[in-house]
Design a protein that fits this description.
Elements: H1 21-40, H2 50-69, H3 74-81, H4 85-94
């Protein structure tokens, strides 16, 4: 009777895999926020406004993305973000944003 050569057991590699895309995104954002807060925390002795500053940066970025993806149609951008158009417009005004495409410099 002929015996088969035994297969060697492969070393198992355990990777840190997130269970959901949400958890993976949350980890990425947290790492980026760590860098951002380090930069913004140099308050020079004044009261910290990190929370307000970061939230403004995030909202501004989300609104720009929503506007680009909706071809600068406010109602479509509002739907993309899951909010009412009036709320979207009010927040745009508070952020000092307008709804015009920026001209590309060539």
């Amino acid at each position: 009777m002929q015996t088969r050569p035994r297969k060697q057991k492969k070393a198992k590699v355990v990777l840190k895999v997130k269970e959901t895309p949400y958890a993976a995104v949350e980890e990425i954002v947290e790492k980026k926020l760590e860098d951002i807060t380090t930069i913004l925390s140099a308050s020079g002795g004044r009261k910290s406004k990190i929370y307000e500053e970061v939230m403004s940066i995030v909202e501004n970025g989300l609104f720009k993305i929503a506007l680009r993806r909706s071809n600068y149609v406010k109602s479509a951008a509002a739907v993309f973000l899951g909010m009412n158009r009036n709320t979207f417009t009010d927040k745009m005004a508070k952020l000092g944003m307008n709804c015009e495409k920026k001209k590309e410099h060539r």
